[in-house]
Inverse folding.
């Protein structure tokens, strides 16, 4: 044990109350930072999972044609390096006209791991007591399960019922509650051209309010028959292995096949910005605890530097250098910071676990019955970095002042 570390340890225990207050400030600051970041990022990650499991990573829809020529160059990462284009004469054609050709083109992208053709249309769901406007999604269930979490979202009935019955329908939970429907009930679906009697094969709950109160799934041929559309008008819902790279892949797909391709990041930009703002806001708010703890340590060390000028002069006169005096103060900050980090990590882990068990039913943008937390060790890294920054500044400034004490001057003044 070095002499400077020993002296620092003695000074820490000599001011137990002040050092404990600083220590608790660091512990609470780190633990609260970790807990709040775990909550906000947990809700964000769960929201992303819900969106990917409901609407897919990429949505491919309308085809556009430019009446004027387009010159463009796109790199492998999906970024357009050069582009000359005139959109004034562009003609947009609704939906996908040749799904088999587009599907074959999409399979050439190595990151694509699922493609589902979806035919969307509006219809009326009628029961004996009331009717309800709905959004029909005609799907091939085997393909759609590759790009969604529909199987896990079904709360009543089953996907196997839907597979066995070509005239089956899977309806949203909010629709089922409103019109009082149960599995195996018969409903009348009125489309633009036809109306069919369908059997309820299942009831799903995605947790997204706008989806659960409007959306219903039926087979793709049935959906086309209801609307009288034999070909075209459908969209593709695409699943990819790396959802975080969806914008780059969507740009590549759009340039390749000439259809509008929208990534989930572009589609949900508003909500992602909201979650980002919440994370930054909570980080700034909780960091104020660490800032206050750093200010407290600064006051303690500043007063100590004033009170210990005579001791510092004696140490300087017996051979201690300015660097040695600074290290005595710095070691005190390091000791308090070290135990603060250990305590903060332990309290952060324990607090995050407790919060994750708190019952709280959430419906609206996703479905959850408890607080959702994200166990990400980068939260601990950021908390430790911020605490180290504040404590380091709070320790370094008094240490620098203490090192400037001139022993001869202090000794003359005390004689």
């Amino acid at each position: 044990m070095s002499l400077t570390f020993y002296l620092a340890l003695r000074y820490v225990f000599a001011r137990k109350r002040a050092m404990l207050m600083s220590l608790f400030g660091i512990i609470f600051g780190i633990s609260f930072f970790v807990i709040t970041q775990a909550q906000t990022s947990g809700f964000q990650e769960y929201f992303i999972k819900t969106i990917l499991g409901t609407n897919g990573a990429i949505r491919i829809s309308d085809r556009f044609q430019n009446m004027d020529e387009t010159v463009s160059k796109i790199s492998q990462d999906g970024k357009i390096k050069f582009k000359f284009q005139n959109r004034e004469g562009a003609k947009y054609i609704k939906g996908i006209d040749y799904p088999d050709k587009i599907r074959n083109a999409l399979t050439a992208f190595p990151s694509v791991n699922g493609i589902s053709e979806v035919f969307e249309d509006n219809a009326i769901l009628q029961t004996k007591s009331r009717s309800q406007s709905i959004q029909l999604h005609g799907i091939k269930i085997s393909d759609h399960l590759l790009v969604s979490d529909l199987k896990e979202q079904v709360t009543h009935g089953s996907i196997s019922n839907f597979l066995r019955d070509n005239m089956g329908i899977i309806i949203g939970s909010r629709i089922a509650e409103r019109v009082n429907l149960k599995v195996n009930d018969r409903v009348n679906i009125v489309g633009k051209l036809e109306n069919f009697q369908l059997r309820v094969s299942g009831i799903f709950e995605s947790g997204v309010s706008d989806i659960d109160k409007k959306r219903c799934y039926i087979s793709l041929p049935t959906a086309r028959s209801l609307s009288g559309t034999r070909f075209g008008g459908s969209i593709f819902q695409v699943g990819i292995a790396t959802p975080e790279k969806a914008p780059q892949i969507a740009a590549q797909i759009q340039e390749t096949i000439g259809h509008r391709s929208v990534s989930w990041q572009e589609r949900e930009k508003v909500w992602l910005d909201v979650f980002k703002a919440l994370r930054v806001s909570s980080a700034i708010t909780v960091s104020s605890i660490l800032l206050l703890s750093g200010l407290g340590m600064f006051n303690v060390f500043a007063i100590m530097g004033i009170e210990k000028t005579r001791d510092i002069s004696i140490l300087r006169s017996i051979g201690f250098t300015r660097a040695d005096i600074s290290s005595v103060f710095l070691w005190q900050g390091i000791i308090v910071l070290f135990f603060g980090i250990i305590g903060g990590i332990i309290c952060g882990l324990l607090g995050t676990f407790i919060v994750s068990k708190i019952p709280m039913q959430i419906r609206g943008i996703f479905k959850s019955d408890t607080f959702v937390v994200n166990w990400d060790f980068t939260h601990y890294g950021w908390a430790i970095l911020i605490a180290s920054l504040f404590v380091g500044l709070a320790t370094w400034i008094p240490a620098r002042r203490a090192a400037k004490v001139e022993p001869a001057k202090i000794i003359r003044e005390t004689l």
Summary: The chain has two domains: 3-52+271-414, 58-261. Residues 58-261 form one domain. The chain has a mean pLDDT of 83. The chain is about 55% helix and 20% strand.
